[in-house]
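CORE FACILITY INTAKE
Project code: CF-77B
Contact: R.S. (postdoc)
Sample description: multi-component assembly, two entities in total
Requested service: structural model of the whole complex
Turnaround: standard
Below are the sequence entries exactly as provided by the requester. Do not edit them.
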Amino acid sequence: EAGVAQSPRYKIIEKRQSVAFWCNPISGHATLYWYQQILGQGPKLLIQFQNNGVVDDSQLPKDRFSAERLKGVDSTLKIQPAKLEDSAVYLCASSLGTSWSNTGELFFGEGSRLTVL
Amino acid sequence: QQQVKQSPQSLIVQKGGISIINCAYENTAFDYFPWYQQFPGKGPALLIAIRPDVSEKKEGRFTISFNKSAKQFSLHIMDSQPGDSATYFCAASGVDSNYQLIWGAGTKLIIKP
């Protein structure tokens, strides 16, 4: 079974530039998550989708971050304009479960490491 | 109410020893407690998880001990091996978190050969 695919793996940009990350979840997984992981910290949830609807985006800095999940499958996360403090690893995860049940396991991709100079 | 506190921040254990990582939670409505393992350059991966109806769960060398009254749970790694060197995250979730995982800050474990 193929895992969660993310690209690009690494991206270096100047502040105020824009960047986009792509995620392809495990086939059949209804729920997709974008997390931000700053070095030395635990993952911080940015946005959660169920199919193509947003379940929770309360921690997404909406003035600069946007995300979409087209047709309930692939997802993109965009940052525009980037700030220095956006330097982090952006992790995509998917799960079989729905947002209203504790069905357990999240499957993570390898992440996209962003460096903002 | 939603925090999960993890300790220690880092841990060095000799090969063959027992590694112990502790977590404490506040919300008594939490009912799912997973541990994730993360290697450098990789995403976290589920290692083992427990629900509060049992006090202990063992999978190979990995054991979760759960103390509902103290609102604490811990990960024990028996016969620790250099390949266990990674960062470990505890987490918790339940109806009060809309079933979203509340993550601990992580423990960087180093197993010395």
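Facility notes:
- The CA atoms of residues 10 and 108 of chain B lie 5 Å apart.
- The radius of gyration of chain B is 13 Å.
Invoice: internal transfer
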